[in-house]
Amino acid sequence: MSYLRKFYRYTVTAIGLLPILAGAAPVLAAFPRPTQSQNGMVTSAHPLATQAGVLMLQQGGNAIDAAVATTLAISVVEPFSAGIGGGGFAIVKVGNNIETLDFRERAPKAASRNMYLDAQGKVRPNASLEGHLAAGIPGTIAGLAAVHQKYGKLPWRTVVAPSIKLARQGFTVSELYTKQAQSKQKLLASNLAARQIFTRNGKPLQPGERLVQRDLAQTLIAIARNPRNFYTGSIAQAIDRDMRQNKGLITVADLKSYQPKWRAALCGKFRQYNVCSMAPPSSGGVHLVQILNTIGSTDLAALGWHSPDALHLLIESMRIAYADRSQHLGDPDFTNVPVSALINPAYAAKRRQEIQPDKARLSTTVKPATTELLQPFLRTEALPTSDSRRQLPTAPAPRSESMETSHLNVVDSQRNVVSLTFTVNYRFGAGVVVPGTGILLNDEMDDFAIAPGVPNVFGLVGGEKNSILPGKTPLSSMTPTIVTENGKFRLAIGAPGGSTIITTVLQILLNVLEYKMDVGSAVAAGRIHHQWLPDKVNVDPWGFDAATLAELRRRGHAIEPREYWGNANAIEQLPNGQLSGAADPRGEGTAGGL
Ligand code: GLY
Prior knowledge:
Layout: H1 3-21, E1 35-37, E2 41-44, H2 47-58, H3 63-77, E3 87-94, E4 97-103, H4 140-151, H5 156-169, E5 171-172, H6 175-183, H7 185-189, H8 192-198, E6 199-200, E7 203-204, E8 210-211, H9 214-225, H10 233-245, H11 252-257, E9 261-264, E10 266-270, E11 273-277, H12 284-295, H13 300-303, H14 308-328, H15 339-342, H16 345-352, H17 371-374, E12 406-411, E13 417-423, E14 433-434, E15 439-440, E16 481-485, E17 488-494, H18 501-513, H19 519-524, E18 528-529, E19 537-539, H20 546-554, E20 559-561, E21 569-573, E22 579-583, E23 590-593
Parallel strand pairs: 19-20
Antiparallel strand pairs: 1-22, 2-12, 2-23, 3-4, 3-13, 4-9, 5-8, 6-7, 10-11, 11-16, 12-13, 14-15, 16-17, 17-21, 18-19, 21-22
Helix pairs in contact: 2-3, 2-5, 3-4, 3-5, 5-9, 12-14, 12-16, 12-18
Bound molecules: glycine.
């Protein structure tokens, strides 16, 4: 991040938040100023992707058309974060109906539980993160085609067109792009096709240089003719061939059988709001609602924004939620996930009793809920008769995810809404481009628990429920979220950031709905994060005053500054019906109004 951008970010945020810090009525003429519009709005992580979405709205398309065009454009201009070689989740509001689409990657048929272990049962370093074996079956194109077929208005080829143009004509890479590519220079240079596209003789493109992706343009042209072309025919065969030549597992049969899944949205009540988000195989919705339930009726605004009391409650609520995540979450099509208990306000109230108002608990003393504890709060799912209690694993510090994974929101004039998060997982995914296609493959297999208690790249530990099986979907934290009030659209949010996605969305939601901040300030504001293990509170280094952090330390919290936070964005509907949108000053995204 340039010093100029950093300076801008810190200064404008501080100015915007002054009234809150001073305890004044939290009604802000805040900075960075959100974009306002009556007729439609797109927020995304890249100006060219936002433009692609706005163009669809201008051409008479609806939110779904714009979201598909924006997603495909991000796939071209943000290859380090998300793309057609990955997968994701969308939550869609059309009329009064809210539903979600799961187009996450799935494990290939030849995948197996111990595929990343050596003969001694030890994890092979980086095997789930780099190279062909790290890739799950991509879902992005199948997902976009499914949501467009159900709700889109414009022809499919029209919504694909902007991404073809961006791939064919190229775009100027930014400082952010170069930084991401530099951090993966060795990996990118070691794969011939990736090296040819993303580097000049093994060195990342420099800011101001043009990235042209001719093979990707041809692939997108084939997809524009028919999205099934990705899963059958020459594209599928190219993936299959590359896999066979490089000890990967994905076959034409895997691709042919890939299906996105429509799933009921996971919703909870918070104050007068209906908060709907992604159900498993993402953990996002479950734990967002669980943490909101744990806050319950406590008036956070009365405690004060970023006050030690409010932060303490948030941290302790996060700690419990992430402990539950480690044991109870997985792909619901393969394992029993006690969703109804975890999002039951009565369960949260019970766990809230564990929280001491003035003292942090050690994560070693905070356990995932037992079967017995959850049982009374279950509505439909049965639990296995016993939990196999695990030793607490020792979790190393996660590698910091910065901008990888990408989120976008679209709201149209009819107030149809799409909130969509997608990813190739860690920076530049597996670092593998399928020759002749321009498709950069994901490393989503790392989101499985590759061995009991072994943390993934984000430091998240998982259990049996997130073990690898053929066709299974790795557990995610992606949290695309839509909030309604009296049935009307109120707020759409999402973020990248690996394990921090859930807590980022939580805090933006609270900033808008509880602290009455505008979306610009809400997205820009400093954040905290606790994920049970490792037992520490990450804080935005500039976001909290020294006295507050000292008080949190006094209560026993291990505070650790964290430089990188998810590049979020959000759109809200104001009481006067105007849309107000903002992209995170941590990234280079924009909000575009119609
Ligand atoms: N790959 C990050 C996530 O899905 O949570």
